[in-house]
Amino acid sequence: MSRMESQSEYVAQAAGEQAKQVADNLRDLGGQVREAAREKYSQLSDQAHEYYDQGRQKAHEWEEGIESYIKEKPLQSVLIAAGVGVVLGLLWKRS
Q1: How far apart are CA 95 and CA 88, in angstroms?
Q2: Rounded to an integer, what distance in angstroms lies between the CA atom of residue 75 and that of residue 79?
Q3: pTM of the model
Q4: Packing angle between helix 74-94 and helix 3-72, nearest 10 degrees?
Q5: In whole angstroms, what separates CA 27 from the centre of its chain?
Q6: pLDDT of residue 44
Q7: In sequence order, what DSSP letters do the residues of 81-95 get, joined into one string?
Q8: Burial 11-31 (b: 16+ CB within 10 A, else e)
């Protein structure tokens, strides 16, 4: 075998090994990206659930506040509701 042929084989073998290393590195990097995306999704999901629960709790507090106001001042509550109804009726009539 000539010297050129052995050098060509060596270069081809080295290139093949480098290609395998690059493929392995890309596979590892893909796994790392996938894991980072899972962690971020989990964090965002937890935050969304937390905000949802906080909003639900706030709405429940408002509901209780409105109910207690209506129980304390029923006549005033009816008059406020009627006033709001008249204003909304006028606005819808114009449009």
Answers
A1: 11
A2: 6
A3: 0.52
A4: 120
A5: 26
A6: 97
A7: HHHHHHHHHHHHHH-
A8: eeeeeeeeeeeeeeeeeeeee
How many residues would you count in the chain?
Answer: 95
- Give the whole-angstrom CA distance, residue 50 versus residue 30: 30
C-beta contacts of 55-64 below 8 A and 24+ residues apart? none
Residue type, 74: P
How many Å apart are CA 10 and CA 14, to the nearest integer? 6
42 phi and psi angles, rounded to 5 deg:
-65, -45
pLDDT digits (tens, 9 = 90+) for 1-52: 566 677 778 788 888 899 899 998 999 999 999 999 999 999 999 999 999 9
Q: How many CB atoms lie within 10 A of CB 77?
A: 14
Tokens of 91: 């606005």
DSSP string, 54-79: HHHHHHHHHHHHHHHHHHH-HHHHHH
